[in-house]
């Protein structure tokens, strides 16, 4: 009724006096903000096929990716390596985890490769830089229960696993001296967003050879604020090392990072192998993407 009356008044004003009333918008809706809280609806810890035959179809498909990656023979595979058996183990371990939300930490796809990689290499020493809630520390200890496992984080206040089979340190790994170890049977997993050039140089000086590094986009795929700049991918390709500062937009804000070009050059020369672990998010359709990379120095 009210709107009809308003319409009538508008028409009269327009027709008699030539006055047009135009509605003005006084409230512009803000852009929808990204939602960071991950819901594990599409995470295989919570959603998966029950029929074993159909489960196997996914395992077989994933095994093809694993076999193709490990056939490159970056190192001698553990004598018990069998991708299908390991993937089945992995699903069981992953589904039995107690952590319900690992937002800001590794999701299924990273976990898949971390578990398989650790089982394939079967290291006696594993070091993790970037423990967060302890999810990947726990996963590594499940994969290699006999390994000496060290975890470093500048703050352990987010730790949720209280019975980890690991020695945890609340500081950077830089100052830590490890007992003698065999480089061929050791693994360092960097997931701490520190400049990758610095991390590779440190790893070399401590005697490490096998490295898994997360958040390693090439320069043209840097969309978030977290990668340690320069990334190993930038070091490997040389792209992004032409200038000593790079900037990009993350979540509508400009982010700028400077690059120590001498340090980058030194780190680049250390890289013997740089290989992205295949993203299995496409094949599983569980969603999420990863830039987990194997590096040999
Ligand atoms: C992405 S989280 C690690 C996630 C964990 N690896 C997982 O996947 O579940 C990054 C962690 O790196 C830690 N961090 C930041 N600077 C660090 C440093 N210099 N040394 C070790 N850890 C650091 C942060 O405190 C944070 O807990």
Description of the structure:
By secondary structure, this protein is an alpha/beta fold. The chain has one domain (43-296): 3-Layer(aba) Sandwich (Rossmann fold). It contains nine helices and nine strands. It has a seven-stranded mixed beta sheet with strand order 3-2-1-4-5-9-8, with helices on both faces. Strands 6-7 form a two-stranded antiparallel sheet.
Blueprint of the fold:
Blueprint: H1 2-17, H2 52-70, H3 83-95, H4 108-121, E1 125-129, H5 135-143, E2 148-152, E3 167-169, E4 186-190, H6 196-206, E5 210-213, H7 232-237, E6 245-250, E7 253-258, H8 261-268, E8 273-276, H9 281-284, E9 293-296
Parallel strand pairs: 1-2, 1-4, 2-3, 4-5
Antiparallel strand pairs: 5-9, 6-7, 8-9
Helix pairs in contact: 2-3, 3-4, 4-5, 6-8
The chain binds S-adenosylmethionine.
S-adenosylmethionine (SAM) binds next to helix 5.
Elements, N to C (H/E): HHHHEHEEEHEHEEHEHE
Radius of gyration: 25 Å
Average pLDDT, rounded to a whole number, is: 88
- Bound ligands, named by name, code or SMILES: S-adenosylmethionine
- Please count the beta strands (DSSP E, at least 2 residues each): 9
Fourth-tier CATH superfamily name = Vaccinia Virus protein VP39
Q: Using the coordinates shown, work out and report the CATH topology.
A: Rossmann fold
